[in-house]
Amino acid sequence: SCTKKCSLNVGSLNGHLLTELHRKWPTLNDKGDSWFWDHEYCKHGTCCADILPEPTLYFSQALMLRDKVNLGKALKKSKIVPTSYTGYRLSDVKKALQDRLKVKNIRLSCGKVG
Fold first, then answer.
1. CA-based R_g, the chain, Å
2. What pTM, to 2 d.p., does this model score?
3. Residue 79 neighbours by CB distance under 10 Å
4. In the list 34, 42, 57, 72, which could disulfide-bond 10, CB 3.0-4.6 Å?
5. Predicted confidence band of residue 2 (pLDDT cuts 50, 70, 90)
6. Distance between CA 54 and CA 73 in Å, rounded?
7. Which 3-state string (H, E, C) describes the chain?
C-alpha cells in the first residue's frame, strides 16, 4: 500500500546509483533531481514497498526497466528524436511506442515543464 507521509533521503542512496540516476533519470523541473526522485519514490515507490522495500531497490529496478524497455531507441526507430527545435505530435509518439513496444494501450500526456 502507498504511504501518505514520505520523505526520501537522497543521501542514503549509494554513489553509483546516484550517478546512474543523474545520467539516466534527470528531471526538467527547476526544483532539481533530488526533489524529483523524492516525488517519484513517495508517489510510486511506496506503493510497491511489499516487493521493493527500500528506495535503493526501487530505483535500481526502475533503471533496469528503463534500460530494458529503452523508449529512446523505440522512438528513434520511428525517426522521433529529441531536439530543441523540432516538435512531434503526441499521436505520432504514441503510435511509435505502440508499434515498437508491441503494446496496445499507452497513456501519454504533455505538460508544461517548470
1. 16
2. 0.74
3. 9
4. 34
5. confident
6. 30
7. CCCCCCCCCHHHCCHHHHHHHHHHCCCCCCCCHHHHHHHHHHHCHHHHCCCCCCHHHHHHHHHHHHHHHCHHHHHHHCCCCCCCCCCCCHHHHHHHHHHHHCCCCCCCCCCCCC
